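If your schedule permits, I should be very grateful for your opinion on a structural question. Kindly check, if you would, that the fold set down in the tokens agrees with what the sequence suggests. Thank you for your consideration; the sequence and its tokens are set out here:
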Amino acid sequence: MNDSTPPGPDDPTGVDPTAAPTGPGRPATAPDGGPLNRRPGSGEATWIVELRRLRTGLTDLRSRVDGLARRVEEFTGHHTDLAAVVSEQIAPELAALRQFTTEELNRQAGQLDEVLTTLRQEDNAPVNWPALTAAQARVQWPVLAQWVAEVLVPWYEITRD
């Protein structure tokens, strides 16, 4: 045997390079009773390659899951910040706006009621000209003429020119 050939299991030195080293604290066999660190056959090699590929895939998956967990944590922080802004700033402003709107609507409704009450009490209520009979129209023409003479012409300074 030349020096470049490693000893095999049949080597007279008795050293099997495929066997795991033994010694204090190192078992001579695997948990299933087989030898440790023996060289795999072709079927086992394929299985080992597949295991390595799966291990790499699991590592990549773990990395992606960790990245997603960090993003969820980040978004949770953003959500908490946004919720604080809404509850501390926007909600009180919205409540004040709602109160102002309600008060303003009530005020304007009161003014409208006053105007309607005034219109009902006046002799000069709006006239629905198309709905008048001929007799009612004869009564309303002089009222309209008086309004034109006393309000419209002086107010808008209408002249015959």
Q: What stands out?
A: Confidence is low (pLDDT under 50) at residues 13-20.
